[in-house]
Amino acid sequence: MAVAGDDDFGSLDDSAILQAYEDYEQSQDEEMGGGGSVATTSSDGKAEDASGSGINMKSGIKIIIQHEEQGTGSSNNVKTGEQSTLANWIYEENNTIITESVRGVRSKYINTSDLQMQEWCEQQMIYNIGAKMGMIPQLITDEGAVVPVKEIQLTTPAMKAGTEVHKKKDLEVNSYVNVAVSTHGDSFALKLLNTIQHIKHLVMGASCIREVTIFSMPFDYGFMMMGIVDELRMNEHEELELVEVKTRSNRFKPLSKAQVRTHNLQAMVYKQIIDDLTSGVVDGNVVLEKMRLDPKHVLDEKVLEHARALDVAGNTLGDIMTTMLDQFRFLPRVSSMVVEYYPSDKDKAYKELLSSRRVDFDETWLKKRLETHFGFWRGEREVSGVDIEELWKCNMCQFVDACHWRKRKNDECVKKMNQKK
After folding, report:
1. Are 242 and 267 spatial neighbours (Cβ–Cβ below 8 Å)?
2. Mean pLDDT for each 10-residue chunk of the chain (421 residues)?
3. Beta strands in 239-382 (DSSP E)
4. What is the model's pLDDT at position 145?
């Protein structure tokens, strides 16, 4: 897999970090590869894949991005006891290395899922992204001992349950066609084609579209954000409605204020991004520049086959980007936002709606939260953890035993207590 551009890690420019970065970038392509639908339609109403085999079409045929050249990547579970050059370095440099490395891999764009984790707990977000890169936090005590860290699960049971619900809901409206690609440019082109197909279906009267890749630079703060919207649909008033799907392990326990705030932030960010796209303020060249992709990149023939099936002209990444942005102009701005909650504890849970609630868009609040979060990515402030009122979150965090934020706060409390004596 080719990496588009080199990131400047400054003093962290180490081969182990760069390899971890490449592995993480590949994992992000795989995570972002599932959004959208692309189909060719034969005269008998069936969709056809590149080989011509007929597939029953619902709302479209989704392209799954598969890389022909697989990197080494990371296993689902990373054991902290494993010895490696990277682990030894982390042992010495610890939290600073992890934090600055995470800032490095996010120099291109920020995923909306990262922002959601940041709203929940910024320190946990750093550890999660770092763990995906093979960087496991280790806490060094004042006595020089290492606090043992249990095995880190990159995919927790709760995450697996949420993914399964999203997948089942996606399969209600999408089928799949595998397309193997080997470059970042072709991968991103497929994401754009998926989105083009989605929008065409919605404009032609589909009840809803799901797993839609979107991106923009909200409020011109200098950061490009990319995410996958769970669902877009037209309501009874022919207005565009945004739906976010969440799962709950405890169907009877009320949502906490922190959960509501985190879910609201994600929905509002998605609305702002979509409104930027529908109003035509997103500059495709700027997006590709942020992604460090070449708009003149000539696409692989396998990608162009699907582009031609969608009547998309041109043969470069820039051509596909232009068409995708033009398609969004056919949609209105988002008029309403809904968060739907489903259980994650049994089969077919994705069909059992527990509850739903509407989210009111608050631009002032959204800007304030984005300014706070972007301050970390700009390097204007250090990483922060949860407020004291939300320390209960730590009981559910697998990094609690190695959390530098908790140790710092504990040290501050001890210092204050000693000063009062």
Report:
1. yes
2. 29 41 50 40 34 34 38 44 40 73 84 93 93 78 59 74 79 81 92 94 92 94 93 93 90 88 97 97 94 95 94 96 97 96 70 90 97 94 90 90 82 81 68
3. 240-248, 334-343, 355-359
4. 59
| DSSP 3-state of 308 | helix
CB atoms within 10 A of CB 415: 10
Taken as a whole, the chain contains a residue count of: 421
Buried b (16+ CB within 10 A) or exposed e, 153-179: eeeeeeeebbeebbeebbeebbbebeb
Residue 421 and residue 269: Cα distance in Å, rounded?
A: 48
Question: Under a CB-based contact definition with an 8 Å cutoff, are residues 194 and 13 in contact?
Answer: no
pLDDT of residue 206: 92
* Residue 378 CA neighbour count, 13 Å, CB half: 12
The whole-number pLDDT of residue 419 equals 81
- Count Cα atoms within 13 angstroms, Cβ side, for 349: 24
- At residue 30, the pLDDT reads 46
Answering whether pTM is above 0.85, one says no
The β-bridge partners of 78 are 152
Helices 15-32 and 85-93: crossing angle, nearest 10°?
100
**Residues 349/342, Cβ–Cβ less than 8 Å:** yes
Q: What tokens appear for 119 in the block?
A: 């709203």
DSSP category for residue 143: T
3-class state of residue 214 by DSSP? strand
Structure tokens at 227: 């995410």
Q: Element (H or E) spanning 102, and its range?
A: helix 95-105
Alpha carbons 141 and 201: distance in angstroms, whole number = 58
259: exposed, middle or buried (Cβ count in 10 Å: 0-12, 13-18, 19+): middle
3-state class of 179 per DSSP? strand
Which sign does the torsion angle of CA 369, 374, 377, 382 carry? negative
The pair of three-digit structure tokens given for residue 157, joined into one six-digit string = 């049971």
Rg (CA), the chain: 22
Q: What are phi and psi of 101, to 5 degrees?
A: -70, -40
Instruction: Quote the CA–CA distance of 276 and 286 in Å, as a whole number.
Output: 14
CA distance 226 to 114: 10
Residue 132: predicted pLDDT: 86
Q: Which amino acid is it at 40?
A: T
Instruction: Check residue 137 and give its pLDDT.
Output: 80
d(CA 229, CA 214): 7
